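hiii so my PI (J.) wants the whole complex modelled not just the main chain, which honestly fair. so below is everything: two entries, each one labled with what it is. i double checked the lines twice but i was tired so who knows lol
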Amino acid sequence: MVTTYEELVPGYEFPPARYELPSSLISEYLKAVDNPSELKIFEEFVPPLAVGACALAAMSESLSLPPGSIHASQEFEFFQLVPVGATIHCHAKVARKLSRGKMRMLVLEIDVFDESKEKVQSGKATVMLPG
Amino acid sequence: MVAEFHEGDALLSVVKHITQEQINLYAHASGDFNPIHVDESFAANTPLGGTIAHGMLVMAYVSEMMTLAFGRSWLSGGKLSVRFKAPARPGDTLTVEGRIDSIEGKNGVSYANCSLECHNQRDEAIVAGEATVKLLEE
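here's the output for the full assembly
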């Protein structure tokens, strides 16, 4: 089910999503962010921003925002290394919804867990919607 | 590791050139196909006047600088907060810079507090933010 901005209320929880992070996906991500070859650590561990991108993608699969919506700010906290090949579980909810005149903003909170239910990352995204 | 870092240290900067091809690659890798990033005709008719890079792509460059400086400490004990101040566009050259503002101890653990900025070739701020890293003991 896809939810629109108008339907969202603070506290709304998006359907949780499960992502596998195989080396092929991580290679594609590393190429996309022009990762320098000296950062060999990402042959073994997933870049934390790739985990964050998955969490945001999981949310966007069930959220329909108007074209032209843009990211205004982002916070992340990284708790654990995520090995390449791991599976993660992403949870997201609406923290705040602001609407003043033509300006509309959405604050979303994400938490990412590994297979043993240990939290590996948390974050907060603020998205600005076109008027 | 704690002894390696000092207040006032500048972090090694990261320089990246943004192209539409790179933005498209990021769209595929992240699954974020918002037309403001990938549809040039759509983006041209918005107040932004053209496509812009994903905020998460620019943020990845910030994380690259932090990983180069702090390694595993960043990946498993980092905290990052950024504000996207202006869009990064195809053709821009971005420079990410950072500095250790302070090192503080809490409950026997040392933390490095850093200020961060990413600016383009016209010295316009694209991203500003702060990061905290839990430093591993030697």
